[in-house]
Design a protein that fits this description.
By secondary structure, the chain is mainly α. It has helices at about 5-30, 30-40, 45-65, 75-100, 100-110, 115-140.
Length: about 140
Amino acid sequence: MTIKVVAVMFVGLASGLAVGSGFVAFLTVLGIIPRLTQLTKTMKMIHHYEWAVVLGAVSGTVASLRDPVLGVSPYFMIPLGLAGGIFVGMLAAGLTEALNVFPVLAKRLRIDGKIIILIMAIVLGKIVGSIFQWVYFVHH
């Protein structure tokens, strides 16, 4: 191995450790997973949530490095995509709940009594953006 390859490997490993440590610190300091279990009333399953985050991060890293081909029916992927989307959405909901984002944003926009409209706008924007990304970028 040349010194250039070793340097690239070192920088890649160091970058991965830094990002992973930041992600774990982010989830730990803000208490996202415990808050998510409180919202869903599944406090007994907190270890499952933690392992889901760890395994998701590791499998996402491996998938991004290898570009896997699963070779399964697209209909089999629908429940997997839904489960992944629900988990990410719940994680985001736990984050916004922990940070008290919606009341602060509604107050800044001067729509204090209409938080449901703000939430629905965010949800519909996320849905439209996800559909656009899937149709335009994935199937082209």
